[in-house]
Design brief:
Largest sheet of chain B: 6 strands, mixed
Strand content of chain A: over 45%
Strand content of chain B: over 45%
Distance between the termini of chain B: 36 Å
Number of helices of chain A: 0
Number of strands of chain A: 11
Radius of gyration of chain A: 13 Å
Oligomer: heterodimer
Structural class of chain A: mainly beta
Shape of chain A: globular
Order of helices and strands of chain B: EEEEEEEEEEE
Number of strands of chain B: 11
Largest sheet of chain A: 7 strands, mixed
Number of helices of chain B: 0
């Protein structure tokens, strides 16, 4: 398997623009997670899905952030409008239920810079 | 107070030294994970533990369930071990992991 795929790997945009991050989980995995990583706060869970349904979105910072999972092989995280404080690395991860320990597989991340 | 605490936050060592990174947690768990992230890189899983001890090469991870504590040891450290090491716990009842803030390790030649 190719692992978790994220695109783009790098995104530079201007404040106020819409940003869409994409994720393809590992085939057969039924959980998908979106994280944000900054130097100050480390890894923060934004939202996670189980069987394409959002389960916990309490980590989504504000209404500017939205996430969708239209099918088992694709998810998007959208920021509209973007702000400089959104600059971070965004990771997507997936896992398969029933594996016991909750091991997640991370994508390579998208480095977002908002100027 | 964070549910998962790591110490130290930063660690500098000389090549060859024995290194210990600690993780304490305050919730009941079904498993604990140690993850590694190289500078500018992705996050990979090193160990998943629910009891006892695991070893992989020069890395050893231990967990004491009663004391809610885990340690990651690196023997004969090498500059390529320089990375951020992240502890995370899985509660089982929830779908997600709870992460510590990470320990940044720098091994000097």
């Amino acid at each position: 398997d190719a692992g978790v795929i994220q695109s783009p790997r790098h995104e530079v945009t201007e404040m106020g623009q819409e940003v869409t991050l994409r994720c393809k989980p590992i085939s057969g995995h039924d959980y998908l997670f979106w994280y944000r990583q900054t130097m100050m706060r480390g890894l923060e869970l934004l939202i996670y899905f189980n069987n394409n349904v959002p389960i916990d979105d309490s980590g989504m910072p504000e209404d500017r952030f939205s996430a969708k999972m239209p099918n088992a092989s694709f998810s998007t995280l959208k920021i509209q409008p973007s702000e400089p404080r959104d600059s971070a690395v965004y990771f997507c991860a997936s896992r398969k239920s029933g594996t016991g320990g909750g091991e997640q597989y991370f994508g390579p991340g998208t480095r977002l810079t908002v100027t | 107070k964070n549910e998962v605490e790591q110490s130290p936050q930063n660690l500098t060592a000389q090549e060859g030294e024995f290194i210990t990174i600690n993780c304490s947690y305050s919730v009941g768990i079904s498993a604990l994970h140690w993850l590694q992230q190289h500078p500018g890189g992705g996050i990979v899983s090193l160990f998943m533990l629910s009891s006892g001890k695991k070893k992989h090469g020069r890395l050893i991870a231990t967990i004491n369930i009663q004391e809610k504590h885990s340690s990651l040891h690196i023997t004969a450290s090498h500059p390529r071990d320089s990375a951020v090491y992240i502890c995370a716990v899985f509660r089982g009842s929830q779908g997600n992991l709870i992460f510590g803030k990470g320990t940044k390790l720098s091994v000097k030649p």
